[in-house]
# Entry
Amino acid sequence: MLFIPAVQPPASASESAWCFAFVEGQILLPQDEGATFAPQPRAELEPLLSLQQRRHYLGRLEGIDCWALALSEPPAGWRRSPLRAAMMQFSEPLMGLAGRAAQVLEWDRAHRHCGVCGTATELQAGERARRCPACGHTAYPRVSPAMMVLVWRQGGGTGELLLARSPQYVPGVYSALAGFVEAGESLEECVHREVAEEVGVRVTDLRYYGSQSWPFPHSLMVAYTAKWVEGEIVPQAAEIEDARWYALDALPKIPPRFSISGHLIRDTVRALGGPEPSATASPVVR
# Structure
């Protein structure tokens, strides 16, 4: 599905529209859980548009206009859903658009006033920006880069993966290591620092895997694989609840494929010659 991003809507509106509407950070889905999230005819969009607090045009998906809306309450026929749960049900294009909508609305909410002098800011025509009329400071949507790295080593037959879990994870789920890039730091430097801080080991042979926009609230995940060099696992207090080496054929529960971590782990296992992991596999620790 082809998405063409834009800031200003075209002169001729499409007959229906995708509306990614949010109430207090939660996306709105049809009240009937069996109903498909789909473009709405313009005549049926009035309940959403009449309650809108803020509206931003996102572009067109296969020729259909896409909007991000912030509402004060759900209208009749709609229910709130956590964004993460909704994204797991969406196709890849819709998942990306829902994330884009959430980030644009969060940027607009957080920059209503100038961060330099406190004056109310104004939306700019033709670009995604809010500008201060007093001092000229301009705020664009924020993107916070974060690295993700899956560490592997020889052993246990075809190899082993270093997986860890944060106290905030769903019980029993393990994933790759991750952390935010600090000011003045390259992505590669961040990988080495975060691995050393979070689990106390050294790595080499960094290989870029891919990236994913992650709207919680405005991250860009950049994923790598890396080979273990030396060191015993020492989990970072308060950050890492548990970290272990797992054989490729005996992984714990891992994230689903909708997140880049789920893709990273599965594709790395396949590249190393292991079996397709299950999201509900029983953990066998090596």
